[in-house]
Amino acid sequence: MAPQDKNKVPTFPVEVTRVSKLLRKEIYSGHLQPTEHLKEIKLAETYSVSRMVIRQVLSQLATEGLVVIEPYRGASVAVVTIDQIYEAFSVVAMLEGFSAKLAAENITDEDIKRLSTLLEEQKKIKEGETRTWHSLNSEFHRIINKTSGNPQILQLLRQTTQFTNYWFLSVPKMNFKIAIKAHEKIVAALIARNGDKARKYMEEHIMIRVNHLIDGIKKRIPIGMFRSE
Q1: Do residues 78 and 66 make contact, with C-beta atoms less than 8 angstroms apart?
Q2: Which of 19, 75, 146, 154 sits CB 3.0–4.6 Å from 38 for a disulfide?
Q3: Rounded distance, CA 34 to CA 80, Å?
Q4: Are the CB atoms for 223 and 171 separated by under 8 Å?
Q5: Beta pairing, strands 67-70 & 37-38
Q6: 3-class DSSP state for residue 148?
Q7: Coil, strand, or helix at residue 69?
Q8: Is 137 helix (H, G, I), strand (E, B) or coil?
Q9: Are 201 and 189 in contact (CB under 8 A)?
Q10: What spatial distance separates the first Cα and last Cα of the chain, rounded to whole Å?
């Protein structure tokens, strides 16, 4: 039996995952407001876990940009600006664009069939069915990203999209037709195994989405972590 490292900080993956999900929801819903102080003792009591678990949760949420941790002041809910939203989506556009380029080299006929089926399902969505769209859209992008065959891209996207996905659900009116046309162009490029076009269309698609999203946020600022100043 290997000796234990006394300096190693113990981890609690199950508890951290559970509490991270709950606290993330509290922030996104607006129950915890921007700049609100997050007290370890209170959070530990609320979620029935140790303070060590709470520290790991806060550290995780800090990497996602949801929490700010300052020396001697502790943790607080982050203030998110339009610039930060734009920057986050710019990163997603770059990652997914490169992912689409790689996918064009690796994609199979079965992958193409699945993407085409998703496209047909997307065309049936009615106005206002944002959550249904979000589900089908996420699967569309997931297939392409997975087909890239690059686990580092997948890891980076998982971290970034936890932040970005919320905003699409916060603005109810979305122009599905524009997104579907973009998806059609991306699939056509993948069928042609044209990586450069797949990358170009994917990057354009995401940046059009974020510009529409920011317009929507300006018209309807959701309760939650957003502040325009």
Answers
A1: yes
A2: 75
A3: 8
A4: no
A5: unpaired
A6: coil
A7: strand
A8: helix
A9: yes
A10: 56
22, 53, 77 - which closes a domain: 77
Q: For residues 180 and 119, is the Cβ–Cβ distance under 8 A?
A: yes
Do 67 and 145 reside in the same domain of the chain?
no
Same domain, 44 and 120: no
86: CATH: 1.20.120.530
How many CB atoms sit inside 10 A of residue 30's CB? Answer: 15
DSSP three-state, residue 93: helix
Task: Determine the number of helices (DSSP H) and then strands (DSSP E) in the chain.
Answer: 9, 3
CA 140 to chain centre: 14
User: From residue 150, how far is each of 99, 101, 109, 144, 157 by CA, in Å?
Assistant: 8, 11, 19, 11, 11
Predicted local distance difference test score (pLDDT) of residue 194: 98
Residues 68 and 108 in one domain: no
pLDDT tens figures, 168-224: 655 556 678 899 999 999 999 999 999 999 999 999 999 988 888 787 666 654 444
**pTM of the entire predicted model:** 0.70
Instruction: Write the pLDDT tens digit of every residue in 19-61.
Output: 998 998 888 766 887 889 999 999 999 999 999 999 999 999 9
**What is the extent of the structural domain holding 193?**
82-219
Q: Closest Cα to residue 129, out of 177, 162, 167, 173?
A: 173
Side chain identity at residue 132, one-letter code: T
